[in-house]
## 1
Amino acid sequence: MIQDYSIYIQRCIQLAAQALGNTAPNPLVGCVIVHQDKIIGEGFHKKYGGFHAEVNAINAVKDKALLPKSSLFVNLEPCAHYGKTPPCADLIIQMQIPKVIIGHTDPYAEVCGKGIEKLKNAHIDVVTGVLANECRELNKRFLTYHEKKRPYIILKWAQTKDGFISPLNKEIGHPYWISSEFQRIYAHKLRTEEQAIMIGTNTALADNPRLTSRLWDGKNPLRIILDNKLRLPQNLHVFDDTVPTLVFTSDTNNHFSSLKLTEFVKINFNGSVEKQICNVLYEKGIQSVLVEGGHVLLQRFINAGLWDEAYVFKGDQEFKQGVKAPIISGEIYEDLNSGIDGLTIFKK
């Protein structure tokens, strides 16, 4: 008899986390199958459109005759609907697995308790809420999207020891590096984990960034640019048409008609820009966005209360004067310091 369910749910979380950045709009899910307190099969949802975790775990069991005498552990409620693949709840019932232990329920309307109900109706013993907080942290993007009807928003900037994000006099079109090379590589890793990355007009002009994840192996995020009057020149890297790009603007006179991967969306810049952006991204199925803009854009999201985490990289230089870093208050989730540079992660 299994004494500690949490050990196996923790393993589900470990498995699921391997696919971070590859499953959206689906959640991160890992699954293990246990017989006599021993894992006989495990798997995870590797990418959107592929087999779900439960399918991969069941397929990994060599002796299928053990399934009717085993327990299935999964960090998120098994699906009960037909999507890209058939319902996992149906497969569990078909394989006569007698017990299912679930970390967290699924808020997605097509599931939302229906998977659990289907299992119980088939007389399967269902246990829920094991390591629920840890399971929620794993799928914070997916859960925020479905519960709050907006993307999970991560703010990110680098600041000096004396609290500046840019020097007073800076050459236009060339970024000024406050963060170390290691921090920049880590920042590109963060980009591969989120569906979109956002900057404003001033950052696009001042730094001419590519907004890709070229320093880390992984997907490039959707590029999002705020350009109220469409005053950005087309020769900027963000308009190189190599990565899908979304431009929020109030100007309908689009002079970038030759771009194939760039979409222009009109919003009212006199209204709540942040909420309008969140609404558009929700409708487009974007579950997470990394905001890398300058002081104005970052502070707007902070003031609107529309943020979930903030990554603040800290360099060891001082500017004395320049553009001040945003003002933020929240719970310090992690505070890392190498002696030369540092990183503080805030949670709202």
## 2
Amino acid sequence: MIFQDPMTSLNPVLKIGAQLNEPFLEHQNLSTAEANERAVELLRLVGIADPASRMRQYPHQLSGGMRQRVMIAMALACNPRLLFADEPTTALDVTVQAQILELLKKLNQQLDTTIVLITHDLGVVAGMCRKVFVMYAGQIVESSPVQQLYATPCHPYTYGLLQSVPLPGKPENKLHTIEGQPPDLIAPSSGCAFIPRCQFAMEVCLEAPPLLSVSPEHQVRCWLNHPDSPRSPRDLFTAGGQV
């Protein structure tokens, strides 16, 4: 797991080396010397210059980008097949964000590790991901290959998210907002959770929709996509504006 804020995820009173060595000592039964050697290799892998000296430093002595690279190295320590990256660039400036994302891409290809990227940044999703899962109120409401999702969104929430992204070269366009408030997850409704905010809601939406297949790789949890639906989401979304 790579957390979004490395300053609060790293222990401020332990040196980088001590924190990096721990998974090797606890889970791989390496000696301290072997753990040190492996930790230095990992720091070098994630692009940290002079890794041996960085091992002797505390988190506050590193920049935000370097701390995030240390977190990535720690996450890779036990050779995971699955890596969760929770908003890994939130606390970083734009230039460092690009570097970290490029590093994740490189590691994905180099180590053959599957990366699940959790983010609200649709630009990052477009540039990084092969498949997208859109979640609302703790449920997957749409899943699709990234290009198909951006070209033909089939859930009103997905459509609203895409409409809220500013378009380059069109400053005159007013940004779309999704009206209403997120649902109360302590007292969830029995029907579709998006009903109070959905401009396309129908009476059948009072019943919880199943996950419907739009195509072999595209599923959506919305009654608009049911074969018996009187409305087509594509027609409705086109009438409401182009994505």
## 3
Amino acid sequence: MATHKVIVKRLESIENFGSMNVLCSDKTGTLTEGVIRIRSVLDINGNESEKGILYAYLNAFYQTGYTNPIDEAIRARHIDLSGYRRVDEVPYDFVRKRLSVLVSKDDIRLMVTKGAMQNVLDVCSSFETSDGTIVEIAEERKRIQQRFEEFSDKGFRVLGVAYRDIESGKLITRNDEAGMTLLGFLVFFDPAKHGIRETINELKHLGISLKIITGDNRLVAANISQQVGFPKPRVLTGSDIREMSDEALLGPSERD
């Protein structure tokens, strides 16, 4: 351990480490490079959206919550926000999985929301096309979901970005996240670490089973699992686990 520059405070942990047969690993920064990059900002037809880029940047720049790699990736574009002013904010939480900021410019007061694609889609009643036309979202909801799944299936993390106008003098609450207009998709990628397949193969030869734990959706989780050497990964979501008994979750190989 010392040759690998590891400090061991409890000697008994060496014995525990040596008897390990299951390793639970985070994905981001452990199996992947941990440096999230924005690949593209697209409208629902798959066209690059300059308005989507601007609005995503407004949201990421003016949010005052915790520092996170998603907002850092968006802010890397360095867009000029001259004339804009932050007015209010509804912070991100793990129930809504959305973040909203209220900004003003001249006589315009604009609420911009970004977050998990499905959670943003849930508060949208319309979407904006490439030429600026506003269309009822009901007739395109299925196609939006299909495009989201296509991106996820390729290993990209996808967020949604939406907006609505807010009347003068009013601050925003969670209840204002309704009747919004969807601008499109924020598509991010975080490549697998170089050499991670070899590391996982070494674990396998040592009799150690790897379990990957991630906050991404099941399609992204399956893709990164395949990238690091699991040709047919079994993916369990949080809802799957909640419905399983402890015995079923343990699995036959571990029970034996």
## 4
Amino acid sequence: MAIDPTYLLYGLVFLAVLLLIEGCYYLFVETTLAKRRKNRRIAMLEAGMEGREVLQLLRRQQPRGAANPLLQPIAYLEQLIAQSGMQVPLRRVLGAMLVVAVVVALGLQGALALGRLPSPLAPLHFQALIALLAGLSLPPLYLSHRAAARKRKFGEQLPDALDIMVRSLRAGHPINAAMGLVAKEMSDPMGTEFGIVVDEMTYGMEMDEALENLSDRVQVEDFNYVVMSIGIQRETGGNLAGVLAGLSHVIRERARMFLKVRALSSEGRISALVLCVLPFAVGGLIFAGNPGYYTKVVGDPMFLPLFSLAFVNLLLGIFMIYRMVNFRV
């Protein structure tokens, strides 16, 4: 029985389209995913940079322990930059703080010229104080946000990194090779951070000190147990693979419990967010629509004490709501 050539043509067209789609997928999607999976250290090494140069660029010295932002502002900023994983010099952060202060000051002057600035903020020294506070707080808050996101990502990747190390140790590799495998196989921030540890040990640093440096950079509580386990095993011996496998299991179970608690408390957290934002949103809308609603009573002698009392009570309520809907697991 002869096959109609039309059906063969349809089959060839279908096969050609399928191969075209698959080729586009591997050309664009897989390439993009591969770039995302590749950590910064591997990308720098593949670009032709020397290992020592990569180490100097990625490693950022920071003070041991928590720096006080009031007594040690420069050390505190250096610590934030290191924990955020950003490769920016300190002078650029200081320049950003200056730019934010200038922009806020100009914005207040523009609002004053348009008559949209409350009369208590009209004096120049109040505007200078607000601009100074904005300049000193907004860039560090951004760095803190980046550091918290990086810390959370590191904590999520830690069980997978421990599993890679366990498989490598059970295959007979030394602990240095197991860390090198993590640095090669995992994406940022885990791959880059373990790569820094491996490079530090390659250039003469002791393993305990390199791991302590990593612990200071990431500030992840679970990783401290890993550092202590490796340190104890180096001194006394034992089944390190079994210890790390147990740590991986405990960390995964605790993360699962934390996610379960967040799911059960999600309704309460959303309600708390609405209750906390609503007073400020309503106040801002009223002031935008009718500025005289507040400015007419600013001169009353009872305004400042009552306003201060209401604001303190609002902050106290926000704090109580925050403690009620956030649980430590």
